[in-house]
TrEMBL record:
Residue stretches making up the Major facilitator superfamily (MFS) profile domain: 8-441
Topological type in the membrane: Multi-pass membrane protein
Pfam families, per the entry: MFS_1
Keyword Protease: no
Transmembrane intervals: 47-66, 78-105, 111-128, 140-158, 164-184, 196-213, 219-236, 257-280, 286-306, 327-346, 352-372, 393-412, 418-437
Main location: membrane
Organism: Isoptericola jiangsuensis
Protein name: EmrB/QacA subfamily drug resistance transporter
Alphabetized UniProt keyword annotations: Membrane, Transmembrane, Transmembrane helix
InterPro entries: MFS, MFS_dom, MFS_trans_sf
Amino acid sequence: MERTRNRVLLVAILASFVSFLDGTVVNVALPAIADELGGPGEAGLALQQWVVDGYLVTLGALILLAGSLSDLHGRRRVLAIGLAGFAAASVLCAVAPTGAVLVVARLLQGVAGALLVPSSLALIISTFDGEAQGRAIGRWTAWTGTAMIVGPFVGGGLVDLLSWRWVFWINLPVVAVTLVLLRGVPESVARAGRRLDVPGAVLAALGLAAAVLGLIERYWAVLGLGVVLLVGFVLWERRARDPMLPLHLFAARNFAWGNVATAAVYGALALGGFIVTLYLQQVAGYSATAAGVAQLPVTLAMLALSTRFGALAGRLGPRRFMTAGPLVAAAGYLLLLTTGTTATYLTQVLPGMLLFGLGLAITVAPLTSAILGAAPPQDAGIASAVNNAVSRVAGLVTVAMAGVIVGGVLDVDSFHRTLVVVAGLFVLGGLISLVGIRDRAGDAVADV
């Protein structure tokens, strides 16, 4: 039994790791991609935008559908399909002869990536419970969070030493190992008598796609259309006999408030990582690899402490950790206000990174545990998908607002202004958790 549980956890970590890694590892390869495939000026810039945006649009649009599919058809089966598709799309990215082919491959990669995270977390929820579940989610959080943070470092090294194409080739061995391990994972029981909510799936996919595209490209009419479609999705789900998203999930206090806290915390996380990476390279003169190395202390803190805080949250409840963690992370970003034009690493950057890493390690595993622990195990896939959709869209919103916050020119003053906004979002996340999250057992809603 213990061997099977360890295998499930390893599969869940590897499958999610490759998806999160691909979301960040590409960023530092964009200049090299534009040089080879994009051409000069606006053509190169447009290609860079769509290499990133293509993945995010399809990932964001289909993640709710993917969560529903994992509940209906079995987590192991959906995960295997996602892994195979992700590998195939990665090969297409790596050999892309033109920019257009690369963008299409990234769109396909986002489709496959959407199948990975909800199924991975659902496997953990259905396999572990109690303090063991908190510890397992802590380990999952440590490694998947590490993938997001270490991505720029790995990508910078591959681009500098080999070629930008290797940021896609590195996915293949991870996927291959995961598929082999997945053969020993038992299939979850599919939901008997349930069918896919086709109208709900269409409304959710189109609504999320339009909203994400509108936010990324600042097409406000498209964003408005996405909001209308998502409102239509909620109205449909209220009357559907077999809804894709059971709205009774939000009757669980921790699920509802936890997702509100997720929006604040992950919005801060996305904006903070974005602005720090840009500032270190464009103003302080760090290389792509050096900028990635500068943020490694956050990775080390996550690896060292996330499992411990996940286990503590499983035993003591998540509220105190979800309150204190964002406040500590906010203090880390405020400490970065000492950073000047040269961004001296040991005295100006490292202290803030260490404090931020501690706050993040305190926060993420208890946050994930609180939300998924409030949902019935049979709805773990869609519950995970909702939480992932919230975190992705929150990050898109804050990064889309970066231009407004910075004011057009990234310098010391605008960097400091953005740091204050990031810290404010973290504080908001901590206060939301203090008000809304409860530690009592039995918060999960009944399956109705």
